[in-house]
Amino acid sequence: MRRASLLASDPPRRASRPLLQTRVSPAALCHLPAGSPRAVLAALLALLSSLPPAEGLHARTHAIELRDRGFTVIRDAPVGKQLASRVAGDCSDALESYLERVAAAGCDPIERLYSFSEICHRQRLRWDIKLPDSARWRTLCSDAMAAASHVIEELHSLPVHEDDRGLRVPNGLLPARPRALMAGAVISRAGATMQRFHADAPAEGLHARLSSKFPRHRLFTIFIPLVDIAEDADGTQFWPGSHLHRSGLPRYEEAIERSGALENDELALSEMEAPACPAGGLIVYDYRTFHRGLHSIGRERPVAYVLCSTGGASVWSGYKFPKLEIEHAHTLDVDLNFPRWEELQRMGFRL
Ligand SMILES: O=C(O)CCC(=O)C(=O)O
């Protein structure tokens, strides 16, 4: 189902930051003395300099979407296609080299589940990797952070959503400026199946509970698709509004009661959205929002990500990637530590 009500909550009370008061009225230009090119030039320059930056123009709209729906797509982010496509190449190379090293350590890189400090394989043909440091990678991450930060800071200047209110903690006490915690890339290859729906921060967990009390205590993931994503194709699917403290959990529980799993629930499925996003655009989502990676359409799909926090929220140091390096895998019992997918399925695990 497409978006029902885009901006359901209160309109923001204050004007968006980039809307400058110094705007020169084009009508004023008509009153400049004739034959005064300097004055015309000065007025034109003033007019141009008063225009808000492109991302600023949209910051409030994205902030309201992120607040109310749990995700927003910034299609005109400054990351750009060229940088995205180069980093896509870097992802491919890094993945290939990790897979060779995993195989050399005695672990089948496709048919087994494993987690190392460089690469995790939590679903067949979908990997989460750390990118080797490079100027390109740093630029991509910092451009993405800069664009997303406008939106996130704007979000913290808005009234809190009705369904997300907890303690009335004065908003000024915790930092509203996002802090990057970690970065990596999720790469799915031809043959990857649909992920299960998941929230990175489950509703009963510590992060969600603290978020419900402190409006600035938030984690956000910034996804940067590195190839063009079409709507309802092989991108990420989100459940709008599922992050909200008061209404998200009851909606989830009702779906489970009706159908046993979100994946089987017609009503929930009809509400899901898998937005289009060009390579180098951004999808920013609240960590509590339910989502899943869709099945592959026969290509490699890398998506870079930056995890960031506001209000002092954090994740533990071994989060996602454990300390164990690929090279040390051979010291472990492979069957015990890195089970085969087929074995896990036989044992009843839903992957
Ligand atoms: O593949 C995607 O689009 C989403 C990946 C994801 O959510 C995950 O790996 O947890």
UniProtKB/TrEMBL annotation:
User: What superkingdom heads the lineage?
Assistant: Eukaryota
A Pfam family this chain is assigned to: PhyH
Q: Which Gene3D superfamilies match?
A: q2cbj1_9rhob like domain
Could you list the residue ranges that cross the membrane?
none
What name does this protein carry?
Answer: Phytanoyl-CoA dioxygenase family protein
Q: Which organism is it from?
A: Prymnesium parvum
